[in-house]
Amino acid sequence: MDETRTRGQGRTEWYERSAMGETRSTTSIHVTALDGLVNVNSLFTIAVFVGLSLTSPGQRSLEGNSACDAGQDVIRNLLVFEVVSFSFFLFSSLVAQGLKLAINLINSNDVDDAFRAHINARALRLGMLASAVGSMMGCLFLLLSMVNVIQIRLGMLSCGSAAAVRAVAALVTLVSTALVVYISTVLYAFTH
C-alpha cells in the first residue's frame, strides 16, 4: 500500500512539474508580447514629443502662401491630440508592465508565498486586451496629430496644398492598413 501511495505521489509531482513547465513557457510568451508592446509604445511616445515641439504659434508653412498657414485651432488640436495619444500609450505601457510584474512574481522561485502574485488567465487576457486597445487608440490619436503637423508645416488641406494632400494620403493609407492588420492579429490571437 505504501508502495502504491509513493508511485501515486511521484506521478502527481510529475504532472505538477509538467504543468508548471507548460505554464512557464506560456507565460514567457506573454512576457515577450508585453515587452514588445512596451517597446513600441516607447517609440511612439518619442513621436508624440516631436509633435509637441511643433506647437509654437505663428509658424509659417512651406507653401509660401499666408492663406495656407495653419491657425490657432490647428495648433490647439495638435496639442490636444498629442496629449491624448501620450495618455493612451502611457496607459497601455503601465498595464503591460503591471501584467509582466505579476507574471514574473508568479513564476519566481525566490519569492515567498506572501509576496507571490495570483493572477488568473481571464484577468491576464483582459489586461493584455486593454493594453492592446490602449496602444491602438494611441496610434489613432497620433495619426490625427500627425495630420495637424503636416498642415502646420506643408499648408492646410483646405488650401489644396499638393504636398500636404500627398503626405496625408500616404500617412492615412499606411497607418490605417497597419492598424487593420494589428487589430485583426489581436482579435485572432484572442479568439483562438
From TrEMBL:
Q: Which UniProt keywords apply?
A: Membrane, Transmembrane, Transmembrane helix
Domain of life from the UniProt record: Eukaryota
Which ranges does the record mark as transmembrane?
33-54, 74-96, 126-147, 167-190
Q: What is this protein called?
A: Uncharacterized protein LOC103703885
Q: What species is given as this protein's source?
A: Phoenix dactylifera (Date palm)
